[in-house]
Amino acid sequence: MITTLVQIKMPAPMSLEKARDVFTGTASKYRDVPGLIRKYYLLSEDGSTAGGVYLWESRAAAEAMYNREWHAFIREKYGMAPVVTYFESPVVVDNLTAEIINA
Tens of pLDDT along the chain (103 residues)? Predict the structure, then answer.
């Protein structure tokens, strides 16, 4: 499995209330994305950085998502380019399902 961290430096700080509205408005875009297991939206405490943590079945699935159209969507939506960092996720602890998953 692959975890990606997407970070977007905001041109101006975003409030938690505004972030909740914006993120809710884009959440359906991530439903049924091939290979995406889970996505967490993120906002730094000072509102200067937004982004997400994504859990993927594979790097290929993640790379398919982060295409030119996705980058353009993020730039248009937030006014800044995203930075995507990839991490191997060899073990995942899921307390909701009471599972430890070895990838």
Answer: 999 999 999 999 999 999 999 999 999 999 999 999 999 999 999 999 999 999 999 999 999 999 999 999 999 989 999 999 999 999 999 999 999 999 8
Break the chain into its structural domains and give their ranges: 2-102
Single pTM value for the model: 0.91
Q: Which two tokens stand for residue 26?
A: 């884009």
* Paired tokens of 76: 């248009």
CATH of 2-102, picked from 3.40.190.10, 3.30.70.100, 3.40.50.720, 3.30.565.10, is: 3.30.70.100
Determine the distance from the C-alpha atom of residue 52 to the mean position of all C-alpha atoms in its chain, rounded to a whole number: 3
Give, rounded to a whole angstrom, the gap between the first and last alpha carbons of the chain: 6
Q: Tell me if residue 20 falls in helix, strand or coil.
A: helix
Range 70-74 contact pairs with CB under 8 angstroms and sequence separation of 24 or more: 74/6, 74/8
